Amino acid sequence: MSKKLIILDPGHGQFGNPHTTREGFFEGTQNFILASHLRDELVSRGFNVKMTRERVEENPSLEDRGSMAGKLGAVMFLSIHSNAPGGDPKSERYTKIRGSETYYSITDEACNADIARALNDAVVATMQTEDRGIKTRRYPDRPDWDYYGVIRAAAQSGCTAAFLIEHGFHTNPRDSAFLQDDACLCRLAVAEADVIARIFA
Length: 201
Ligand SMILES: [Zn+2]
What we know:
Blueprint lengths: L4 E6 L16 H18 L3 E4 L10 H11 L3 E8 L8 H5 L3 E5 L4 H19 L3 E5 L2 E2 L2 E5 L2 H9 L4 E8 L3 H7 L2 H19 L1
Parallel strand pairs: 1-2, 1-3, 3-8, 4-5
Antiparallel strand pairs: 4-8, 6-7
The structure holds zinc ion (ZN).
C-alpha cells in the first residue's frame, strides 16, 4: 500500500509578519521551521509529506498552496501560523492576548471539528497557553465557502480535511518565547504528529 500524503503549509514567505517581540524574527520563517520539524516527525510515522514551500524563501499563492492538496491526493492539508491581534500595537491588550486556535473547513464539518479539537488540545497542552477554541469562518455572501484562502482552495480541490492552526500569538512574550525555542518547536511537532498519526494512520 502506498503511503498517505499530508500537505504542510508554512504560512507566508520568509520575511512575512515581522516578529514584534524580537527584532529580526519573522512569522514566515518560524512557521517554516515548525513545519520542517513536523514533516520529519510525520515521515518517521510512515507518512509521505510535501511542503507548500520547499525552501524558506518561496512564497506561493494561497490558491497554489491549498490546491496542491487535491491535485496530489492528500489525506490532510495543514496550514501553520502564529497569530497577532488587530488594533493598536501600543495598546496594553496587544501584547497580553495569547492562546491557540484552530480553523477547519466547513466541508465535512463534523468530522473536521473532532480533528481540530484534538490538534488544538495538543498545541495548548504543549505550549501551556490559553485555549481560544476551534473555529470555522465563512466567506461573506458565500456561506458554502470557507473564508481562509488556503482552506478554501484545499477543500475545493478535493481535500476536505483542511486545517489552519494559529500557534499562539507571536506578539505575546510567553507564546513568543516558546515559538523562538527550537527544542519547544520539536516538542510541538511531536505532539501534533502523534494526533495526526492516531487519526490518519
Ligand atoms: Zn500567519
